[in-house]
Structures are given as C-alpha cells and as structure tokens.
Amino acid sequence: MNIPRLLVLITIIMAAAASRLLPHPPNVAPIGAMALFGGASFGDRRLAFVVPLAAMILSDLVIGFHRTLPFVYGAFALIVLIGFWLRRHRTTLGVVGAMLAGSIVFFLLANFGVWVLGSFYPRTLEGLLAAYVAAIPFFRNTVVGDLFYATVLFGGQALLERSYGVLREHQRTIPGQP
After folding, report:
1. Which of 53, 87, 132, 153 could cross-link to 37 by cystine, CB 3.0-4.6 Å?
2. What is the pLDDT of residues 94-103, one digit of tens each?
3. Which residues contact 127 (CB under 8 A, 6 or more apart)?
4. Inter-residue contact 103 to 142 (CB < 8 Å)
5. 58: buried, middle or exposed (CB in 10 Å: 19+, 13-18, 0-12)?
6. 125-140 in b/e burial notation, b at 16+ Cβ within 10 A?
C-alpha cells in the first residue's frame, strides 16, 4: 500500500467535503465528484466507498441530516461504482462522461426520494414526473458543480502525481533513474 498516496487522497476528499460548508448555489457541491474520484482513485475498493462516505457524513453532521439522505447516499454509492469503471477509462472524455452519468444518477435518485418521502407531489406517475420537471434547474447546477469539482479533484491529483512520483498508484522503477 502506498501510504503517501493514501494520505493525499484522503486529504483531497476531506477538503472537498469541507467545501460543502462554504456558501454555494444550490446543488453546486462536490458530492458526485467526491464519489467518482474515490471510486477511480483508491486501489482498495472498500476505501473507495468508506473514505468519501465518511467525509459526507462528517460534513452532514454540520449541515444537518434530512429524510432523503438514504437516496442521496445510494446515489453516492452508485457513483463510486461508476468510478470503478473510470479506473480503466481514465481520459478527459472518460471523466466527463462518467461525471455526467453520475449527475444523472444523482438527479434520478435524489428526486425520486423527494417524491417518495415528501408531501409536495402526489404518489402518481404524474407526480413523479412533476418532481423531476421541478428539479431540472437544480440538475443544471449539479452538472456545473460536478464538472467543476471533478476538474479540481482529478486535475489536482494529476498535478500532484506529476510533481511527486511517490504519489502515483503504479510506480515504475527504471534502472539508472531516480
């Protein structure tokens, strides 16, 4: 296990979670990017779930819990799984595609939770569609936030790995080179 890499990944995710505590437009948050980054970056699949989820729980302790959290955390877990796919397809296009897929997963599950547990919409197909339609402006913000934070997380990791070889997941030792 590469301890320096592990510590840097944990620090990056905790810093992203802490940014949830700063003022921000609705749904412009690091949630999806943290899950995707965790799935794509941790070699240990358990840590890929545990570290970002622990960061979420810690920030939710400050922000507050709400009834739809099971749906939010469920979306979070599915986005970690998308991150597992991204490990083998880590290109700019792959990150953008995975992030958009994660934004859609979050939109569908979180708003399904609002419909199921809330009292705003009737428990009919029309009510579910109304819940999704009402959430479209928030979806735009989710995509903007996810893409911003994915750029910061993945880009920051790439810069750190380029500057500090010890942080690379798979270090190659070449005879005669430091």
Report:
1. 153
2. 999 999 999 9
3. 115, 121
4. yes
5. middle
6. eeebeebbeebeebbe
